Amino acid sequence: MVILEVEDMSTKLNKEQIEDLIEYCGSYPTMWRDTDMLICCPVHGEHNPSMGVSSELGVCHCFSCGFAGDFSKLLAHSK
User: Fold this and answer.
1) What are the residues whose beta carbons fall under 8 Å from the beta carbon of 45, sequence distance 6 or more?
2) Whole-prediction pTM
3) How far apart are CA 1 and CA 16, in angstroms?
4) Tens of pLDDT, residue by residue, the chain (79 residues)
5) Across the chain, how many H-helices and E-strands are there?
């Protein structure tokens, strides 16, 4: 696991950092497609991937529970 040393969450993260962030939030990356990934939503704890994460924009959105926000909001909701 790579330790995130990012002072400003608006800083663009690379794929490995995003995967570490998602793992820290309690989920795991399921598949990448270019700069986007699909994961199981750590906010409502499901077992089917329904959250889209965009590394290009630095945002995520769950199509099941409706949670949407940037990576700092995801961190705040998960811990």
Assistant:
1) 26
2) 0.74
3) 9
4) 444 454 555 567 778 888 888 888 888 767 778 878 898 888 887 788 899 998 888 899 999 999 999 888 888 887 6
5) 2, 5
Find the helix or strand (DSSP H, E) in which 55 lies.
Answer: none
Compute the CA torsion angle 29, 36, 60, 64 (nearest 10 deg): -70
Measured N-to-C along each axis, helices 71-78 and 15-24 cross at an angle, to the nearest 10 degrees, of: 20
Those residues whose C-beta lies under 8 Å from the C-beta of residue 10, and which sit 6 or more positions away, are: 58, 70
Single-letter code of the amino acid located at 32: W
Place of tokens 């690379």: 14
Per DSSP, what are the bridge partners of residue 29? 39
The phi, psi pair for 20, rounded to 5°, reads -65, -40
